[in-house]
Amino acid sequence: MRDVGEGVRFAREVLGATILHADQDFAAIRFGESVWMLHHDRTYRGNALRGVVDGLEGRGAGVELRLYGCSPDVAEERARAQGFTVLAGSIDKPHGLRECVILDHEGYAWVPGIGIPDKQG
Fold this sequence. Notes:
Strand content: 35-45%
Mean pLDDT: 90
Largest sheet: 4 strands, mixed
CATH architecture: Roll
CATH superfamily: 2,3-Dihydroxybiphenyl 1,2-Dioxygenase, domain 1
Order of helices and strands: HEEEHEHEEE
Strand order of the largest sheet: 4-7-6-5
Structural class: alpha+beta
CATH topology: 2,3-Dihydroxybiphenyl 1,2-Dioxygenase, domain 1
Number of domains: 1
Number of strands: 7
CATH class: Alpha Beta
Low-confidence stretches: none
């Protein structure tokens, strides 16, 4: 990630996640039972992935990160207020989830979703 601080801001202010730890190189983030980590590009100096990410444009192209239990309506509203791109507004889907699609600052597509009560069988 080019800017861990921006990743932390997106997670906290749009997704409503809890920041467990954050510095300029690394962050640990929790939402519900899920924990994920962000690493700055410079931490990959000795990592096999370095050659894959060096110089890439549109880092998140094609990557979709689904966060079940995160209200799409709330996340969409927060994303719009913060100036993030909402690719698809909140909508009830035939598979029983209410979802939206939001791009973060690196271009990763986040899909917050919750179950639709009358479709929960």
